[in-house]
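SEVERITY: medium
COMPONENT: batch folding queue
REPORTER: lab tech (J.R.)

DESCRIPTION
The queue accepted two submissions in a row. Attaching both inputs and their returned structure tokens so the on-call engineer can compare them side by side.

ATTACHMENT 1
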Amino acid sequence: MIIWKHLNIFFLFLLVEKCTLTSHFLISGRQELMLVPSVAFRHRPAAMELTALAQPTDDWILFAEGWLFEENPFRAMLATSILATTVHNIDKKRLAYFTGTGKRYKSLCVDGLKHEMCTRTDTHGLIETQFQVSNNDIEQFRVPGGRGGKVEYSVSTTDKSLREKGEIFLCDDHGISVISDIDDTVKITGVTSARSVIRNTFSGEYKAVPGMSERYRHYESKYNATFHYLTASPDQLYPFLREFFEREKFPLGSYHMRHFTWFDSNFFQFFASQSFIKQKTNILHMFFQKTRGRQFILVGDIFQKDPEIYANIYENYPEKILKIFIRVSEKKLTNRLNQVFKNIPKDKWVTFVNGYDLPETVF
């Protein structure tokens, strides 16, 4: 109960965002612009039938996502003091991202893909925009990255004081994609324990589930697969997850995350909230609906709601899902899965404890 007491104090404190005293002279700090790697699909006019085949000259719809924020040294200092009672060796940079303040309604310029466009941040300082680009332009700007290639773009403030480069990974109509969860699927987080979640988020070096990067690289090579990481983790963690992925040599790909706000006062529950289930389901629908002949391998874990989410998705797109892999704590732990996957053929789903348990050949 002590851990919950400290966590509740910590997240109650984070609600100081609403306090006028700290919203002025106490919280000013360095501004930063963060862009999260996103995805692009072939453009489909609304009137086009779902069975229509993509043409090589089809335009693309590109999604751009990011966050413009200001660090809050005062709030970060107090949060560090509070967390220090239960977490050792706090990474102050990670904590600074969680105690930062989004810059709302700020104009930003998107360029690097021939035509410049403008957008604005939302109430949380988030950038969530999409734009249409011709296939000719895509081919002109396509660079190596993942198996489908990627395009790079830039976002800057109107005064050019901040400028950041972003990546958009191309997901064409045909081929194979691996859509993977992160926490307790490829990275050890301990989502069933509040203490573990906080410790593994704010301190220490992120640890990989053994064998996962090797197996993912094998699938990337064998099936020319693209990768998309769909996770409950907040996008404030993206820079640190990127460092972890590069260190462990996971395949490049798009990230699909949520944003932690001061209304999500319980960080532990944030990982298991109903809003995450809805968001993850919507992202999966997006991938299946915006590609024609592409097939998918879904990878998740039993510790959250991945089995239920994947089972519901399978009912809608059985022909598009090649395999479902679910990480468990021990191989015999399948009672829940037998019930959840009762309407899915037995050869369509497999459990694993680490990456070395995953088959080298999926189909």
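ATTACHMENT 2
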Amino acid sequence: MDRAPSAALQLRQLPPTSSAHPVGEVSFSYKENLIGALLAIFGHLVVSIALNLQKYCHIRLAGSKDPRAYFKTKTWWLGLFLMLLGELGVFASYAFAPLSLIVPLSAVSVIASAIIGIIFIKEKWKPKDFLRRYVLSFVGCGLAIVGTYLLVTFAPNSHEKMTGENITKHLVSWPFLLYMLVEIVLFCLLLYFYKEKNANNIIVILLLVALLGSMTVVTVKAVAGMLVLSIQGNLQLDYPIFYVMFVCMVATAVYQAAFLSQASQMYDSSLIASVGYILSTTIAITAGAVFYLDFIGEDALHICMFALGCLIAFLGVFLITRNRKKAIPFEPYISMDAMPDWYLHNRQLQFKRHSISKNISCHNLERV
């Protein structure tokens, strides 16, 4: 009679025999998700405030003769400090939460910029024009907030320690190698059409940015996670993979900024913001799912609700950016002040000769 309860007790004490990740390296904790999400939201909010402070400073000094007068203002330096603080918060968030959760939260920056811009920077508006001009922005903000809530609620909840061994293991796994092969081929094809065929379509440029950005966020998470572990006492800086990831992070971020700069010279900033957010978020989530296996162990309902949150956030960002004012489409790439004197002198001579020859031709025609 005593053997049955004891056998049942032994069965209940048996450890689980299967797990998606090694025990001790993964902790299923909503607390870490919350910390990462709060850090990302805080970082994006602070960055938005910083950018609008600097924009406000530039607007006030637009008529100044000194082109660098903003360096002498406390407002601009406060904006720079807040920007660094916000970027540090976003960087730290990657060490706590899955990549698939942190990347879509950049919609918070778009929401904050829209609200701050309407309140503090936009020109005065009449009550009768309020709905016509700002209803899309408010609807977009509401949708983006709903989408963000769904993202935080149904985000993947697996947390793997960013040790050198784990990162190396993921780096040489066949799914990621296959993904990298596809991404490199696609990047080379897009770059060929962009450079050789002059394919300056915004989709081509922002796809190049998104492909580089997916590698940026993958390496950022690795570097941030290894730094946090090192601060906690588990030193990871003696692994060569840390420095490989750090170099890749800096290189992809620099080239990403270069392509964004080229896109901003040809297209409106609101279009870049909406299309870039959608493409970058989609490709970055895919990279995180392949490299860090973010969705392993998640049920279909959570994955579908997370995807729904992404779609709602995409729609919200599109509506917010669609109502922004169009920028001035033309701006010379090279200022005439930067031209050498001999070049300007030659151009003036050519223009005079052309004018003289044209006048002679017209005079001859009149005589005929």
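NOTES FROM REPORTER
The two ends are 129 Å apart (CA to CA).
No errors were logged for either attachment.
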